[in-house]
Amino acid sequence: MPPPKEQPHPFADLLLTVILPSVVLESLSKPERLGPAWALVVALLMPLGFGIYCLVKKRGLNFFSILGLAAVLVTGGLGLLNLSATWFAVKEAAFPVFLGLAFPLSFFWKKPLVTELLLNPQIINHSLLQSSLDTAEKKSRFHHLLGQASWALAGTMLVSAAANALLVLYYLQGTVPGTEAYTAAIGRQNWVGFIVIGFPMLGATMLLLFWMLRRLQALTGLERDDLMNPGVTVRRQVGE
Predict the structure, then answer these.
(1) Which parts of the chain span the membrane according to its record (predicted)?
(2) pTM of the full structure
């Protein structure tokens, strides 16, 4: 019997190749720590090392590694410079842009990240869901639904990027890079951005989840409780 096929883990891939390197850049770029140059080197090692691992294991090129390298090079490379407010806005917008691209790209790569974020197997009864997709038409409609959700999530990230850039321009415009006022303005922009961008983005994601559940109910004939609670007896059989 052949060994079971290794299952993709798009959220773990994204965490290792994009999110963690970005955290490294933010937390270790200060002069009293690694400094911007060495922080960039350490951050680059994560997506680069993972990409090499995928090639050695014959899994082929991993687009998350490519995405991570591009994101780290842009944000880290700009971080090495004394940025004006305009270029700092570009830097702050870069990460949500690259993260947004991950959703449609992962869909076309046949490892849709949306299934990890919105249809996590710990929440959704995947075995019941897959068994309910018992016709070619249903499978096609489900695939189309994943594509729509992927582009919707990409759109929310692009809105986040634009909002983040505008906040940077608002708080940093007129300040001189490297000064105390510049550093204080960055601090204000960070926590204000978390409130005025983070919470609306979370709300938009939850609305998208409920939209997907309604579409899945209509597609499969299952109740929401059946979809969200593995092991619950199906209340309404498909096709009734």
Answers:
(1) 37-56, 63-81, 93-109, 149-171, 191-213
(2) 0.66
